[in-house]
Amino acid sequence: MKHIVFYFLAIISACSFSGCKAQASFGENYLHLTKIISLPGVSVRIDHLDINLKDQIVYIAALGNNSVEVVDLNKEKVLHSIVGLNEPQGVAYIPQTREIFLANGGTGDCYFYNATSFEKVAAIHLKEDADDVRYDSVNKKIYVGYGRGGIAIIDALSHKQTGDIKLPGHPEGFQVDRKRELLYVNLPGSDLISILDLKQLKLSRNISENYRSGNFPMALDSSGNILFIGYRHPGKLVVMNAQSGHRVITNELTNDSDDLFYDEASHRIYVSCGGGYSNPGFINIFQMQSGNKCMQIANIPSRNNARTSLLVPQLHLFLLAEPAGHNQEAQLLVYRTQ
Question: Cα 269 to chain center, whole Å?
């Protein structure tokens, strides 16, 4: 536990000297830090994460390191580094085939790896900038946002691209609504949220927010038909009716958010925010309440640029990737949710 105590002391010290101002920490009881796992050799930016639930293995896209780090949560260590990549951004674990899917932003190449031997078993080339990834485990489909405006659809079993939907801008965070066969996509460069028809494989309509502050991460409450959108600068959390596009709630958010999750069991929203510039990061937690109300219940400090994370409700875990900085190596923080 010494390393965890030292971690919190370092965070408090950083906040004291970097002008946290209104960013006071509170609600630490909603996340209990249980493990800090070192990511030796990982430098610069870290992007998205995914998990093998059965074996509790986490896959971290270390974009700045051109690698994917394979981390065993039980052994609390890095098992393997998949190297030789080109700005890996999106990652997904395919349990049916026990494979890892990686999307490279630098080349547009997408690779399948055997999750045991780490041998590359297939490759698909997209035009450019393969970015965020979502895996539909029911229909065995992988969705990849890429290029100047596209969602590629890949069959996870055959390793073949089966579809492509054009967009009016580069896609960032997006969510699949299997119930309605729709896909919601953030297009921050165009200040739009696009709704795609997965039956007809085409753009259905766009929602124009005119907010112009970078709508990057997104979560979906499919049962309530509600979208949660994170805006970066200035930081805002927008709760929106997914059908009408009507903005229901707007809350303040720490700047530079990149991952956002909604837990349907607790009706809580988790957002990892990097802070931006030299400011510390924070984990913002919000509680959805009756009467279309949303209250922030936690503001938990983290490192600057620690903006990528993963909520694992099946294990009651929240994982935060912290990049290296100030003579500190990169690390994965493992929190237990309340």
Answer: 13
- Return the sign of the alpha-carbon dihedral for residues 34, 37, 298, 308: negative
**CB neighbour burial string for 287-297, b if at least 16 within 10 angstroms, e if fewer:** bbeeeeebebb
> For 252-286, how does the pLDDT look when each residue is reduced to its tens digit (9 = 90+)?
999 999 999 999 999 999 999 999 888 999 999 99
Instruction: Determine the pLDDT at residue 15.
Output: 47
CB 221 within 8 A of CB 195: no
Superfamily per CATH, domain 44-208: YVTN repeat-like/Quinoprotein amine dehydrogenase (2.130.10.10)
- The residue with tokens 């935060």 is 320
Name the least confident of 14-28, 46-60, 263-277. 14-28
Q: Which of 245, 121, 222 is nearest to 175 (CA)?
A: 222
Could you tell me the end-to-end alpha-carbon distance of the chain, in angstroms, rounded to an integer? 19
pLDDT, tens digit, 9 for 90 and up, residues 130-172: 999 999 999 999 999 999 999 999 999 999 999 999 999 999 9
> Where in the chain are the domains?
1-38+212-338, 44-208
Check residue 193 and give its pLDDT. Answer: 96
Residue 20 has pLDDT above 50, yes or no: no
**Concatenated DSSP letters of 267-319:** TEEEEEE--STTPPEEEEEEEEETTTEEEEEEEEEE-TT--EEEEETTTTEEE
Of 267, 181, 180, 175, the C-alpha closest to 230 is 175
CATH architecture, domain defined by 1-38+212-338:
7 Propeller (2.130)
Distance CA(120)–CA(129), nearest Å, equals 20
